[in-house]
Design brief:
The protein has about 120 residues and is an all-alpha fold. It has six helices and no strands.
Length: about 120
Amino acid sequence: MVNRVKPTALKLLQGSHRAYRDQELIPPVGEVGEAPESLSAAGRRCWDELVALALPDTLGASDRWLLEMTAALMARLRAGTASASDIGQLRNCLGDMGLTPSSKLRLTVAKPRKTTSRLAALKHA
């Protein structure tokens, strides 16, 4: 049996959240950028749509391959040429990017690091 992790929001509601167990998340590095030339025109439109739908600060340069595969699969689905395995793979890709209702509950976005008081004083000087 799979041990599923409860979403933080649910833990907070139930009063079982333990802040010391929170992982420090690394924010995405770099911008996603424009769609690759290897994608079809329909695939590039899907790329733009996926980037627009993604939650802020969740996609970075290292996610380009996953985003490219997802955009190509979505273009196939919309063209009516997707197989059953393509649809299953698309669903997995969307879940990995936090674009399904259940995956949004598990998605955690990295928070900006707090600055020390010395550094904050220098910034405001």
